[in-house]
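User: what does the whole thing look like in 3D?
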Amino acid sequence: MRKGPAREEAAREGPARAGPVAAGCCPVCALVCGASRECGRCGWLLRGDHVRGEITDDLEWEFGARLATARRRFDLPAVVRVADALGSGDPGLADRLVDLVRGGPPVPGELDAARRAVRTASPWPAAAPTAMATDTVAVGRLLSRIVAGEVRRGGPPSSN
Ligand SMILES: [Zn+2]
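Assistant: Here's the predicted 3D structure for the full assembly of 160 residues, as structure tokens:
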């Protein structure tokens, strides 16, 4: 069994931070996928091959780590977009929003990569309809949490 900070982080995320996942929806981007093998928006593998033998703790840990990474990388561009749009008068906003990202705190370089991706993305929705739909879901979720009072100016997010 693996030990260490990554496993502790995965255990700390828990279902509340990960948010609900409706049946038939992608656990990363929430697209309704039905019986698809792979998510048509984010590419998450929804139905893989059968696992031979026992599902070990290491297999579960590896799956949880991959899912956490995919969720974090899906959510971080939304943080960048919201912070860019609202953040100049509130320098701590991005840090508070990062606390809401599913998958735990970003690993070094992930937030910078999200900034680069957002700032180099096409501003024309017609050129990237999938990216725009992805942003709409993630930004909408973060804005909902701001409106619900989970993100406050100058304070830590409330626990849930
Ligand atoms: Zn997806």
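In plain terms: The chain has a mean pLDDT of 79. The pocket of zinc ion is lined by residues 26, 28-29, 31, 39, 41-42, 44 (CB under 6 Å).
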